[in-house]
Specification:
globular, seven-stranded mixed β-sheet, six-stranded antiparallel β-sheet, 14% helix, 28% strand, single chain
């Protein structure tokens, strides 16, 4: 699939490495100059936490003088708030400074930052990590960041740390310097946001071409970003109009990056497919929704955006020397996965297959609730199973013990009021489907779903000799009939449900480009492994093809 010219706008990648921006006050506004790098190599002590307090002067900004501010790990300085005022980011981490939404596009959100608080964005890029330093002198305070982009995860673009060193100097006279020593990252928000009582909007500029003649500005910024995200409706309509309404699922892989901080993709759907008894799914099946995806009902779910060819997800395996990450990173399991393989190599494209299994699983789950002892209980934070829910996989894919690709966990009852968590339900390495999932998919009958349970009031007690966490908890038994009592029986039932599925593996390229040999090889590798995964994890009760039928 080749993009139309300009379909996703233009990328604007960071071009200030080796430069210093200087913001000089002029009344309540600032003039901006772009000059050669001015860098203080003495960083001072590392700042623990986000809160910075000044003892030698107060910094004037946005009509006030400040003795304290927050330094965000992700490259921002925020005034008028304390650490306790800043909640966690979408990934559960408290980084201080400015927090963006998980799916915010930098090109869109940059103009809205002044609505919250006075902010200086030195290099605001979510999900960065690493130390930051603060040195206070009599006439200035120097803040330095030494960060890496996220690495090693399914959501990441790199297996290795990257170097990103930048610095802000806040001077007693209110002037500001932002200096960029070494930047691997190419997308971020840079600028100053003074809160104004008027209706004046922040000015979007190109800092590389600004001079003192421009401005002055009350708030000025530049958003460095990749191409805009395509609409999933446009993606599916392009394919279906060209090749026919013959796909159940569509997965997109591209030769370009989009304006997203995650290399992977959420899903768009469920869209079509007339199935009841599986709970309230993401989209009701209305004619308007079907028409917007250009399907008569065959197409059921797709990626919401394309996955970049250079991302971790599209690589066959982690490269040699990739650092071992956490238990949510594929590198953590490399040795174990190799040992279980006949050729002593882990199955290829595990990240891609785990992602596909997870998103396609959302066509049917996890949306149901259950009625236990006349009380309706939730089985998870929609649309994933709760981590306290027992969801062992019926037909494992990567390891002998797996929890559902849609969440939950594998809990060992120790019969003393405690439970050991054998698997936490994150789909890395790729995992299969639980008995409840397979019932909702129409692949097993209600009679084949064993009783399961959900825990509540968990209290962590420690770990066992294998490093697995032990919890004290209260157990509630759940049966498939408890689910049917709320949702009704699955229809079509197991004897009449769909068993043959087709996934369109789509390579998306920029206008005027042809698919490279690399992206075609990788897409074909994912296609082959996806078919094998589907047959394995459904117990050969369903088949998957990647052909236009």
């Amino acid at each position: 699939m080749e993009l139309d010219q300009g379909a996703l706008g233009k990328a604007n990648l960071f071009d200030l490495t080796g430069h210093t921006l200087r913001f000089t006050p002029e009344g309540s506004r600032d003039r901006v100059e772009n000059g050669p790098l001015h860098w203080d190599s003495d960083f001072g002590p590392e700042l623990t936490g986000a809160e910075a307090r000044l003892h030698k002067f107060a910094f004037p900004f946005s009509g006030k003088s400040w003795n304290a501010f927050l330094v965000g790990t992700s490259g921002s300085i925020r005034f008028g708030a304390s650490e306790k005022d800043i909640g966690p980011d979408p990934y559960g981490k408290t980084a201080g400074g400015v927090t963006l939404g998980r799916f915010d596009q930098l090109a869109d959100v940059a103009s809205k930052l002044t609505e919250s608080a006075p902010v200086i964005c030195v290099f605001l890029k979510p999900r960065m990590s690493g130390p930051h330093y603060l040195k206070e002198l009599s006439d200035r305070v120097v803040v330095t960041w030494d960060l890496t982009e996220p690495f090693g995860s399914l959501l990441d673009f790199t297996w290795f740390k990257t170097i990103n060193r930048f610095q802000a100097v806040l001077n007693r006279d209110g002037s500001i310097e932002m200096s960029y020593k070494e930047l691997a990252a190419k997308d971020a928000i840079v600028g100053i946001y003074q809160v104004s009582s008027g209706s004046e909007k922040p000015a979007q500029v190109h800092f590389s071409s600004l001079t003192r003649k421009d401005g002055p500005f009350a708030a000025v910024y530049e958003s460095f970003h990749y191409l805009a995200l395509p609409r999933p409706q446009d993606l599916s309509c392009t394919i279906i109009k060209a090749l026919g309404d013959k796909f159940d699922f569509l997965a997109y892989y591209s030769d370009f990056r989009v304006d997203s901080q995650e290399a992977s993709s959420p899903s768009d759907g469920p869209v079509g497919g007339n199935v009841t008894g599986i709970g309230q799914t993401q989209h009701e099946q209305t004619q308007q929704i079907l028409e917007s995806r250009c399907t008569q009902g065959r197409f059921q779910l797709g990626f919401a955006q394309p996955v970049f060819v250079g991302s971790n997800e599209m690589q066959e395996r982690p490269p040699e020397g990739a650092p071992i990450g956490s238990s949510h990173d594929l590198t953590f399991y490399s040795h174990q996965l190799a040992e279980g393989s006949p050729d002593r190599k882990p199955l290829p494209y595990n990240y891609a297959i785990g992602h596909l299994g997870h998103e396609v699983g959302h066509r049917w789950g996890a949306y149901v609730t259950a009625k236990v002892n006349s009380e309706t209980i939730s089985l998870g934070p929609w649309p994933h199973w709760a981590r306290e829910l027992q969801t062992p996989v019926a037909y494992p894919y990567s390891r002998p013990t797996e929890a559902s690709a849609l969440g939950g966990g594998v809990w060992q009852d120790n019969f003393d009021g405690t439970y050991t968590q054998l698997h936490d339900g994150y789909f890395v390495p790729a995992t299969g489907y639980s008995y409840l999932d397979l019932y909702l998919m129409g692949l097993i009958s209600a009679a084949e779903v064993p009783d399961f349970f959900i825990l509540k009031n968990l209290v962590r007690l420690g770990k066992d000799a294998n490093g697995d966490s032990i919890f004290k908890a209260e157990r509630t038994k759940v049966t498939i009939q408890d689910v049917i009592a709320v949702e009704g029986p699955r229809s079509p039932d197991v004897d009449h449900s769909q068993r043959k599925f087709d996934t369109g593996i789509v390579v998306v390229v920029e206008h005027g480009h042809s698919p490279s040999h690399e992206i075609l090889e990788q897409a074909n590798g994912i296609r082959r492994q996806w078919i094998e995964y589907w047959e394995t994890t459904t117990g050969h009760r369903a088949s998957m093809t990647a052909n236009r039928r």
